[in-house]
Amino acid sequence: MAYDYLLLDRKSSVPLYRQLYLSIRGAAERGLLKAGGRLPSVRRMAADLGLSCTTVEGAYQQLCVEGYLRSSPHRGYFVQDVRRDSPAPAAPPAFRHRAEPAVRYNFGSDCVDSENIGLKAWRRNIRSALNRRGVLASYGEKQGETELREALAVYGYEMRGLAAAPEQIVVGAGTQPLLVLLCGLLNGGPRAVAMEEPGFRQAEQIFSDCGYTVRKLPGDEEGIRMDALKASGAKLLYVSPSNRARTGAVLPMSRRLELLGWAKACGGFVIEDDYNGELRYRARPVPAMQGIAGGYGVVYLGSFSKLLLPSVRIGYMVLPPELLARYRPRAANYNQTASKMEQLALAAYIRSGQMARHLRRLRKLYGAKSGALVRALRAAFPGARILLQETPLTVILTLRTRKTARELCRLALAQGVRVQPDESGGIRLGFAGIPLDDIPAAVACLKKAWRGC
Fold first, then answer.
1. Structural domains in the chain plus CATH codes
2. Residue 107 neighbours by CB under 8 Å, 6+ apart
3. Which of 2-6, 246-250, 259-263, 278-282 has the highest mean pLDDT?
4. Which of 289, 423, 295, 444 is closest to 376 using CA atoms?
């Protein structure tokens, strides 16, 4: 039998069995080997090519596993019909790293100050969890570890006034996976979600992916307008009461009560995204809507990305009794998305009081950072609009310029300062990640970057 379709290079670093496998596979795909045709036996091909039987057998076995050959006992190996109308895709091009300007000052909203994350305490709790070998050898609880849910029930009550039993709490790897689960629980019910303009891009994407219609409604001085909400026909409301996106203000108690009354009257739900709600530092945190409602009609979402580390992807959702009844029969069908090890470490971190102490330190730190940043921006850019968003730990800066936000961000990056465009058209400066002492110099670089704009 002719072996002109085989390409073997004994000096190549690629193993011979792999070269043989690739040659036979390519020949089958190109039609050089007729479908149904029989290949030489392992011994015959090994002898003809001067290869070991192990090499040929290894190639044949892999081709059989992938469906290019079929093995028939006592008869041999037969080629399957795997011809392609078009050639196999070429190997992807080698990755080329595109050089970016060096970032000296990072005002990104996706990081925290590495000097103030309580890393030693967190590392101790991780080590303690790792030492629990018997516990870590299993997948863990699909709703979230009982230890963590019990700790979160107490923590939520003390910090945010939540009315939540451990069995109402569902743990997941951040807000978006929990929203996906929630959309499944709500399936068959209302399909429109209302939120105040300008909306929240990450949540909007999840709702859209799950087939829900997002209706962005106007607001007034107290929050989303009640007349617009009632006229929208929506029975789901997504709201961040600790920080309004447009103003950075807290939703006042009067509007909170109105929204809860709306949900009760129409049989709908308020989805309360309390992102960093306990991290308010200019005043005491406002009680969560979930607790005000006694746990009814409100789905509460909480996370720890800025309290601990953005890389610790743990969030939690508190289900009201109405949705808990839907969740329980299907709970066993959901896989847990958050690391069991990190769940156990977080439970110990909360129970020991380390979280509460760390939170007190962060409130002082972020109060100092926000004050320093606002003062520096006012001095550098008189006449600019400066909006402090307290719990997201950001400042929105709007300059009087014809340049777009993205153009301003590129100019800033050229000076070594990373900032981000905001949906409002302004520039978003996150101050969680930049050291306090670097803020004056960073703003000076921004002033230099935007001189003449």
1. 16-79 (1.10.10.10), 105-112+357-449 (3.90.1150.10), 118-355 (3.40.640.10)
2. 417, 418, 419, 420, 428, 429, 430, 431, 433, 434, 442
3. 259-263
4. 444
Residue 343: other Cβ atoms inside 10 A: 26
C-alpha 34/C-alpha 61 separation (Å) is: 19
- Are β-strands 38-39 and 76-79 bridged in parallel, bridged antiparallel, or unpaired? antiparallel
Give the CA distances from residue 8 to residues 20, 59, 69, in Å, rounded to whole numbers and listed in that order. Answer: 7, 13, 20
Closest to 248 in 3D by CA, of 10, 428, 433: 428
CA distance from start to end of the chain: 76
| C-alpha distances in Å from residue 173, one per residue of 272, 336, 387 | 17, 8, 30
- The answer, yes or no, to whether residue 164 has pLDDT greater than 60, is yes
Residue 382 to residue 398: CA distance in whole angstroms: 11
Length of the chain as a residue count? 453
Contact 246, 219 (CB under 8 A): yes
β-bridge partners, 217: 196
Q: Which residues pair with 192 in a beta bridge?
A: 213
Two structure tokens written together for 14: 């690629």
b (16+ CB within 10 A) / e for 402-440:
eeebeebbebbbebebbbbebeeebbbbbbbbbebeebe
Q: Which residues lie below 8 Å from residue 219, measured CB to CB, with a gap of 6+?
A: 196, 197, 225, 244, 246
Judge whether 56 and 3 are in contact, CB under 8 Å: no
Q: What is the pLDDT of residue 91?
A: 58
Supply the Cα-derived Rg of the chain in whole angstroms: 30
Total Cβ atoms within 10 A of residue 141:
16
pLDDT (tens digit, 9 = 90+) per residue, 432-444?
999 999 999 999 9
Burial 182-211 (b: 16+ CB within 10 A, else e): bbebbeeebbebbbbeebbeebbebbeebe
* Distance, CA of 260 to CA of 42 (rounded, Å): 75
pLDDT of residue 157: 92
Q: CB–CB of 156/297 below 8 Å?
A: no
Quote the tokens at residue 8: 């073997």
Q: Give the torsion sign (CA, 92, 95, 98, 102).
A: positive
Average pLDDT over every residue of 403-431:
93
